[in-house]
Structure formats: structure tokens, C-alpha cells
Design brief:
The complex is a heterodimer of chains A (253) and B (162). Chain A contains 9 helices and no strands. Chain A has 253 residues and is mostly helical. Chain A is globular, with a radius of gyration of 18 Å. In chain B, 23% of the residues lie in helices and 22% in strands. Chain B is elongated, with a radius of gyration of 18 Å. Classes of the chains: A mainly alpha (253), B alpha/beta (162).
Chain lengths: 253, 162
């Protein structure tokens, strides 16, 4: 495999893994949503994200050239081989925590895909353009909930504050870069994460102001996703997601 | 040995496959069916997904395969392409009218210049009133949102502009 293909495969895997892991987490709400419309909304968003990850993982496997399919990549890799952003794997918690996590990630994906659709890699650009359309709806959905929760009752405000306390430390990892980003950025393929970060911060500030919420001043951040480091939560999520294909390889239904 | 079908003949064979969720529109109306190519002996059908995770895509692919088998086409491949990206702008006015009669409010005219936080005026497919309210941006399928008409009090699906 050429050096560019090796970098591109890794870069694509990170995008696909992030979508897959949030999608899998959101799927846990299926049948448990607080109201029917929200149950349907979360599973629809989950479906979009898993659909996106299928396309990105298929492409990552193609460039890698070892014959691995989307299913091989999703079901037969262990924790340390996963490249999703650490925020994606965090537990759902209550509805405020689920929505806050979704809001942080959807806004991140929105600006990330806005840039990636101009990538010199035609496949990444096309997949980004498609994903962006879907993520636009996700941003709208979670922004509205954050405003409603933050500027709602004392209870909903308190729960949102608690969610910010829990999740803020994982947001910095979304913008973590390494030599894969740097080399592909020079080739016009990767996204400039500094720009995404600035736009992300601006949008978060805007919605937080409408929601009467403060951006935390604590800037301690947990990172490591580009090296495959994760929190303890990913292993449990993968165990549940992978048990069937690993117990019955080749199973079809 | 059956005579080789032309690209156009194959296209016409499969163009009228209905969408499995919304049977009043076909895969040609939707723009899911992009192109049919015959490369020597091999037939290549290009399709594009509406939404990334739309489960109907698998059914559509299976329906295409069934029809091609029945027509005696043996060497074929159904390929998914992502560019140009699918948009509701491809729906003809006539197809939108069929959607409306079926009880689904069709997508607005253009998907361009859409900001994240704005919503357009949606008309009730039953009474044509504009006094409508969004119930949920996510409806019974990925491509639809749920609305309620405050004039005739009926809930209805809206095919999202995409």
C-alpha cells in the first residue's frame, strides 16, 4: 500500500468510526425514548449515522486493499484499533446528556463535513456532501433541545449543567490531529481542524447564550483518539455490538 | 441464447419499480436510478441512496436484481454511487403532485440556500391550508417529517426538502 493510501485509509476510518459509535449509542434509546417522536428522531439520526459509517468504512477498506469489508471493520476490530472520537463512545446518561453529546458532535460534524466536501479526494468529498445534508437536521434537532433544557425548568437546567460537567472534557479530542492530518492537509485532502474548532466554538457559544448556559472555563481535556486510546466505555459497547458476528462468523439474517 | 438487451431497454424494465415505502413514486421519479450501462456483456446499474441509512435501498437493489433475472440478464452488477449527491430537486412536478394526492406534502421547490435554523411554509396535503405546525423533524421514514394541520386538524407526513 502506498503511503498516501495508508494515510487516507486511516483518515477515513476515523470519520467512519465516529459515526458508527455515536449511531450505536443512539440506538440504545430505541424503544426507550421519553416520547414517541423523540424515540423516532433518535433512531432516525442513528440510522443516518450508521449509513454514513457504512460508506466511509467501505471506502477505508477499499483503499487499504486487504479485502476488508465494512462488516469486517465494524465487527472484527478491537478497542485499540477503533479510531472514533472519545466523546462518541460516552454513555447516554439522561436525556440532557444524550442531547448535549449529540449537539457537540453534530455541530462538529456539520463544520467538518462542510470543509471535507471540498476535499481533493473525490469520494471523501461526495460522502461529505451527502452526510452534511443529514447532519444539518441533526444540528437543528439537538440545538432546539439544548435551548429548551438550558432555558427551561430549574431541573432541566441543572441536568444540562451536570451534562456539561461530564462531557466538556471530551470535546477537545474532536479536534486532535497528528501527522495523518498534516500530510493529507498539504495534499488538499484533509480538513483544517483549527478552522473547524473556531467555527464549532462560535456555534456552541451562540446556542449556549440562547440557552442561558455558560461555556466552561476549565480547559482540561482528555485526548488520544488518533492513537486509538479510549475510555473504559468503548469495550462494553463493542462487546454488545460485536457479539453476534464473533460468536457466529458469517451469520446471515 | 436470448438477444442482448440495450441500455435503454434495461432502463425501461426497471425504471417503474416503486419505492417500497412510498409506492406512488418510482425509483426513476426519485432519481435513485441513475444510469444503466452495458459494458461488453456486463450490465451495470448505477443507483444512488436518498439518505445514507435508508433501509429501502436494499429492497430496491433486490427488486432490480429480481427483474433482471426474470428478463434473462445474467451478468450484471448493481453499483451504488454517491456523486452527484441525491436531492429532492430531482423530483418532477408531476411526481410531487402524486405525493400530494397520496397524503404526503411534497418537498419545496429548491434545496439550495437552506440555513440550519429556518423552516419554510408547509402546506397541508388534504385541505391545502398553510396553518401547519411541525410535530417532529423525524417521521416514519428518514425522508419525512411529521406535521399537523391546524385548519383540518389532520396529522400528515412532509417529504423533507433535501
Amino acid at each position: 500500500m502506498s503511503e498516501i493510501n495508508s494515510l487516507l485509509s486511516e483518515y477515513t476510518l476515523r470519520i467512519g468510526d465516529t459515526s458508527l459509535i455515536i449511531g450505536q449509542r443512539l440506538g440504545e434509546w430505541c424503544g426507550h425514548g421519553p416520547i414517541l417522536e423523540e424515540d423516532i428522531a433518535l433512531t432516525n439520526i442513528s440510522l443516518d449515522l450508521i449509513g454514513q459509517s457504512r460508506a466511509f468504512l467501505t471506502y477505508a477498506g477499499e483503499i487499504e486493499g486487504k479485502g476488508r469489508t465494512e462488516d469486517d471493520l465494524a465487527f472484527f476490530r478491537d478497542e485499540r484499533e477503533y479510531r472514533n472520537r472519545i466523546l462518541a463512545e460516552q454513555p447516554n446518561g439522561d436525556y440532557a446528556q444524550t442531547m448535549l453529546k449529540q449537539f457537540f458532535i453534530s455541530v462538529y460534524q456539520y463544520f467538518f463535513f462542510s470543509h471535507l466536501q471540498k476535499s481533493k479526494d473525490e469520494t471523501l468529498a461526495a460522502l461529505a456532501e451527502k452526510s452534511l445534508k443529514e447532519v444539518t437536521y441533526h444540528v437543528r434537532h439537538s440545538s432546539e433541545w439544548i435551548i429548551r433544557f438550558g432555558d427551561g425548568t430549574p431541573e432541566s437546567n441543572l441536568r444540562t449543567l451536570s451534562a456539561i460537567d461530564t462531557l466538556w472534557r471530551y470535546t477537545g479530542d474532536m479536534f486532535e490531529t497528528d501527522e495523518v492530518d498534516e500530510k493529507l492537509l498539504q495534499l488538499g485532502i484533509a480538513v483544517n481542524m483549527n478552522q473547524v474548532k473556531l467555527q464549532w466554538e462560535q456555534k456552541i457559544k451562540e446556542v449556549f447564550e440562547a440557552a442561558t448556559l455558560q461555556i466552561p472555563t476549565d480547559d482540561f481535556m482528555i485526548g488520544g483518539s488518533t492513537k486509538g486510546f479510549h475510555s473504559e466505555h468503548l469495550g462494553h459497547l463493542l462487546a454488545e455490538m460485536q457479539v453476534l458476528p464473533r460468536s457466529f462468523p458469517g451469520a446471515q439474517w | 441464447m436470448q438477444k442482448q438487451l440495450t441500455e435503454e431497454e434495461i432502463y425501461n424494465l426497471i425504471a417503474n419499480i416503486p419505492d417500497p415505502e412510498i409506492p406512488v413514486i418510482t425509483i426513476e421519479d426519485l432519481g435513485v436510478l441513475r444510469e444503466v450501462k452495458v459494458d461488453q456483456d456486463k450490465v451495470i446499474v448505477l443507483i444512488t441512496p436518498t439518505y445514507s441509512g435508508c433501509p429501502a435501498m436494499k429492497t430496491i437493489e433486490d427488486d432490480i436484481k429480481t427483474i433482471l433475472h426474470q428478463a434473462g440478464v445474467q451478468n450484471f452488477e448493481v453499483k451504488t454511487v454517491f456523486s452527484p449527491v441525491w436531492t429532492t430537486d430531482w423530483l418532477s412536478e408531476e411526481a410531487k403532485e402524486r405525493l400530494r394526492k397520496y397524503g404526503i406534502s411534497p418537498p419545496e421547490k429548491s434545496s439550495t440556500n437552506k440555513s440550519i435554523l429556518t423552516t419554510n411554509l408547509i402546506f397541508c396535503p388534504r385541505c391545502n391550508g398553510s396553518n401547519t405546525e411541525l410535530v417532529s423533524q423525524f417521521g416514519s421514514t428518514a425522508c419525512k417529517a411529521l406535521y399537523k394541520c391546524k385548519d383540518c386538524l389532520e396529522p400528515f407526513d412532509h417529504f423533507k426538502c433535501h
